[in-house]
Amino acid sequence: MDVAWEEFGWERLGNGTGRRRLPVWDATAALVAGEDGVLLYDTGSTLREGVELRSQAEGLLGRRVTHIALSHPHFDHVLGTAAFAGAEVYGAVGTAALLERSAGELRADAVRHGMSEADATAATDALVAPRHQVSGEWTLDLGGGLQVLLANVGPGHSGHDLAVLVPGSPVVVLCGDLVEESGEPQAGPDAVPSHWPSALDRLLELGGEEALYVPGHGAVVDAAFVRAQRDQLAARFGVS
To answer: How far, in Å, CA of 176 to CA of 159, rounded?
Structure first.
């Protein structure tokens, strides 16, 4: 599939996969396009951002997003989901219940980080929780021989971290905020530091040495970067 990713401001990664670094919080959104289906990994921080991602996906591919995978339930990664009516939404097990009970907390967190009250309220009022919950691994067939793996590798950065592996040459691993390149990994109140290094071990096991690792914030990195960040986190939190 010949997709002009760069013309839309996206970065081509391989095997029908591209990503965009969104403004303000530098969060990653990624598209994986098969012959029959299109997966979007994370939906942006506002409904407006979600609508823009939907428009870009349709412009790039000529068809709509059919599946959404949410990396973790933080505002800058999930609040655009309502813009994708009809898409099947996936999250790590527990994500749905958390989002259903924590709209107020998400809104407050978004406003605390600089989002307008109006944008935060509109997005959380329309909040969409995942219908499909991934407890281990889930293979999603996008058609044309492209099968992507959704892997519940957390907890770590949050209590509900979902990674996506796209096979090919190179393999692409969408990491969410388990890996960050543009700053030190953020450990908020829902982080589980004791499990974070082992979550990165699982990412490395899934992707291998030659994979591209796509962080939740920042530039694409390699296995050596992920391993170094794993060791830094282990030292920071006093775990092995």
So the answer is: 13
Q: What confidence tier does 1 reach under pLDDT thresholds 50, 70, 90?
A: low
Whether pLDDT at 190 is above 90: yes
DSSP 8-state assignment for residue 221: B
pLDDT digits (tens, 9 = 90+) for 220-232: 999 999 999 999 9
Q: pLDDT value at position 240?
A: 81
Dihedral-angle region of residue 75 (phi above 0 means left; psi in -120 to 50 means alpha; beta otherwise): alpha
**Packed helices 103-112 and 117-125: angle between N→C axes, nearest 10 degrees:** 160
Buried b (16+ CB within 10 A) or exposed e, 171-197: bbbbbbbbbbbeeebebeebbbbebbb
